[in-house]
Design a protein that fits this description.
- It is a single chain.
- Helix content is about 40%, strand content about 15%.
- With about 170 residues, the chain is an alpha/beta fold.
- The protein has one domain: 3-Layer(aba) Sandwich (Cytidine Deaminase, domain 2), CATH 3.40.140.10.
- Helix 3 packs parallel to helix 4.
- The longest helix is centred in the first third of the chain and has 36 residues.
- The chain is globular.
- The structure holds zinc ion.
- Zinc ion (ZN) binds next to helix 3.
- This is dCMP deaminase.
- One of its GO terms (biological process) is pyrimidine nucleotide metabolic process.
- Keywords: Hydrolase, Metal-binding, Zinc.
């Protein structure tokens, strides 16, 4: 009988706390993804991605050419080469060579996923996507939503980042 009371009171306060800490963790992983993007040798745009499961980073990626190719993303005219892989695709395909399983994981990516990456995200069993930068095309986001993947946009502008309040 006492237990019931305890359960009720803790369930009334914990969702808020959980929501807050989840959000702070989201921002930290997103910032890590942004730092990871600095590994990219692409000049036009640098994108970073992390796959997190059970509080562990199980994969990471940034946009770039496939293994064994030159570390140059753009041709002489500055146009991105067609065989450059997006950060999400690199993170997901890296999982294919590892012992990790992305089922039920969260993907953090510094830019809005395109439709090609959205397909991979769905097929990899990723359940949640947190991204930092909106893109004019929303077909990737729309596809994820249609597939039941939870999608969340979080701006990395300092004004919106609650974890930077105390700094
Ligand atoms: Zn993509």
């Amino acid at each position: 009988m006492n237990n019931k009371h305890i359960t009720e009171s803790s369930s009334a306060s914990s969702p808020l706390l959980e929501g807050r800490s989840k959000s702070a963790v989201d921002y930290r992983y997103l910032r890590m993804a942004r730092i990871w993007a600095e590994n990219s040798y692409c000049k036009r745009r640098q994108v970073g991605a992390l796959v997190v499961k059970d509080k562990m980073i199980i994969s990471d990626g940034y946009n770039g050419t496939p293994s064994g190719f030159e570390n140059v993303c753009e041709d002489e005219e500055g146009i991105t080469k067609p065989y450059v892989l997006h950060a999400e695709a690199n993170a997901i395909t890296k999982l294919a060579r590892s012992g990790n399983n992305s089922e039920g994981s969260t993907l953090y990516v510094t830019a809005s996923p395109c439709i090609e990456c959205a397909k991979l995200i769905i097929q990899a069993g990723i359940r949640r996507v947190v991204y930092a930068e909106k893109y004019r095309l929303t077909d990737g986001i729309d596809l994820l939503t249609r597939a039941g993947v939870e999608v969340e946009y979080k701006s990395l502008e300092e004004d919106n980042d609650p974890t930077l309040d105390s700094i």
